[in-house]
Amino acid sequence: MYGLFRPRVLGSWRMPAAGPVILAVNHSHNVDGPMVMGVSPRPVHFLIKQEAFVGPLDPFLTGIGQVKVDRTSADRTAITRALGILDDGGVLGIFPEGSRGEGDFASLRAGLAYFAVRGGAPIVPVAVLGSSERQGRLVKGLPPLRSRIDVVFGEPFDAGDGSGRRTRKVLDEATERIQKQLTAHLENARRLTGR
Predict the structure, then answer these.
(1) What is the DSSP letter of 143?
(2) How many CB atoms lie within 10 A of CB 12?
(3) Which residues, in sequence order, are CB contacts of 18 under 8 Å at separation 6+?
(4) pLDDT tens digit string along 152-178?
(5) Which of 85, 144, 157, 165 is the most buried (most CB within 10 A)?
(6) At what angle do helices 111-119 and 76-87 cross, to 10 degrees?
(7) What are phi and psi of 69, to 5 degrees?
(8) Which pTM was predicted?
């Protein structure tokens, strides 16, 4: 990432040094996941759509510990692997909106709340800003080479209500809390970086 772009990483010290953690990353470009993996202070295992595991990318992504997800149904294998990462004290990366979009955390899915509550892991919000710049691109699918991309880590927070329950009501309330926290972090990151 440092060879192709000019990442500016802010707040990475906020990530807990040990124990299970979930990185909730906004997603507006294909490079967001690799950028976070490249600059994170700890190895990250992202949930990635199975369509990305094609050709030589399949053994590469599998080899570096990324988790293949079938988005057409509740993928029990992916859920088990993700919870195993958290049980082992690892870092799970999630794009809470489920797919690329505006990158504004406007439409969260319940998966992030489920993993946070079920896995007992704090969430660290991560804002990737500047990856969707179009002006100056040499390669259609990439941000302009040597452009600055800001990666801003936020304060860890717990999504659950402390009860340990995992009912639909608890998960819905956790999703609301998460959305407020992620939106506030993104607004703060934009102020901080001027983007």
Answers:
(1) P
(2) 15
(3) 89
(4) 999 999 987 777 677 788 888 888 888
(5) 85
(6) 40
(7) -125, 130
(8) 0.87
